[in-house]
Design a protein that fits this description.
The protein has 333 residues and is mainly beta. It folds into three domains: 5-172, Immunoglobulin-like (Sandwich), CATH 2.60.40.10; 182-297, Sandwich (Immunoglobulin-like), CATH 2.60.40.10; 305-333. The chain is 11% helix and 46% strand. The strands form six sheets. Strands 4, 6, 7, 9, 11 and 12 form a six-stranded mixed β-sheet that branches. Strand 16 and strand 17 (228-232) form a beta hairpin. The termini are far apart. It comes from Streptomyces sporangiiformans.
Length: 333
């Protein structure tokens, strides 16, 4: 079974990295020497921003999907690029990739039609990868990375390896995709030893899919009616189902202690939650008291649930019309 795709969906180009998907450049190659981007996303996830940079999907045992990636050589010399899938996991709130070409179940299910590409200077090539889930696969979410790798020679006998990657988040199980959800449990203001304020949120993954957290923080109703923000939440927190982790927004050095009305909106793909609380920042080098916030939910219902509710509304409306016609007929008789 092949999944319907949005063609031409792209993620941002990644620079050559020392072992990190989308990270900074690694040794041995100048910044921006080569890049990797995902070209396809499922139609059912066209409103999910994660689907344009990572493979985030659900498959039944025995199912197959195919995706395309584009490899770009941005240098003035030819490059030999290796493409392969390798293991990854989520540990301590981070998406963690295994060393080298280490394997796990998902990477073993993943194959590429062009394992090696020779790219002329300033050129691009497309490759296709396939994920084929065996019929005996057990239920659960698995993680891996599609890597594009360039090896070069360093000083002496040292071999330098740079690679960029696209993350794979694949849930396997019968039926539809399990829900994604999270809860903001508490907010904690603090100041660093240098006096820089920050607000940290403790987040629990209450769903059944991994989450990549992002968000923004706004401050209002501060001293003399001041407002500030939005401040971006630092990226990099990834939570497996059931995990608890923290995300932090760093603020302006000159921000008064408060009190402030804080509004924090966090998101992972289509799932979003907003928390509000009154906070005051402590003295430099101190942590303030943790606060249980007020929560406003903005979770998007799954498509099947939305369609079911729409169908139920239509049925109830039709029954209402029939009842009205029956009552009018009774009055005339």
């Amino acid at each position: 079974m092949l999944t319907a795709l949005v063609q031409g969906a792209v993620s941002s180009d990644a620079n050559a990295t020392g072992d990190a998907p989308g990270g900074s450049e690694g040794p041995g190659e100048p910044k921006g020497t080569f890049g990797l981007r995902l070209l396809d996303a499922p139609v059912v996830r066209r409103d999910d921003p994660r689907a344009y940079t990572s493979v985030v999907d659900h498959l039944n045992p025995g199912a197959t999907i195919e995706r395309r990636v584009e490899v770009a050589n941005k240098s003035p010399k030819p490059l030999r690029v290796s493409l392969y899938a390798a293991a990854a996991s989520i540990k301590n709130g981070k998406f963690t990739f295994a060393a080298g070409r280490s394997k796990n179940e998902l990477s073993e299910w993943t194959s590429l039609d062009r394992p090696v590409l020779t790219l002329p200077p300033e050129s691009r090539e497309t490759a296709r990868f396939r994920i084929q889930v065996p019929r005996w696969a057990s239920r659960g979410e698995r993680y891996a990375v599609i890597w594009a790798e360039v090896a070069s020679s360093g000083k002496g006998n040292i071999k330098l390896v740079n690679r960029v990657g696209t993350r794979l988040y694949l849930d396997v199980g019968p039926g539809g995709e399990p829900p994604s959800a999270f809860r903001i449990e508490k907010l904690t203001p603090a100041r660093s030893g240098e006096g820089k304020p920050q607000l940290t949120a403790q987040v629990r993954n209450t769903g059944e899919r991994a989450l990549e957290m992002s968000g923004k923080l706004w401050l209002s109703k501060g001293p003399a009616g001041l407002s500030a923000g939005p401040y971006l939440v630092a990226r990099g927190t990834t939570l497996a189902p059931g995990d608890t982790g923290s995300v932090t927004a760093a603020l302006d050095d000159q921000l008064p202690n408060g009190p402030w009305k804080a509004k924090l909106t966090l998101a992972s793909g289509r799932v979003r939650e907003t928390a509000t609380a009154t906070v005051s920042f402590p003295s430099p080098g101190m942590w303030g008291a943790s606060i249980a916030p007020d929560i406003a939910n903005f979770r998007q219902w799954p498509p099947l649930l939305s369609w079911g509710l729409a169908a139920m509304t239509a049925i109830l409306a039709a029954l209402g019309v029939r009842r009205l016609k029956w009552r009018r007929a009774q009055r005339r008789s």
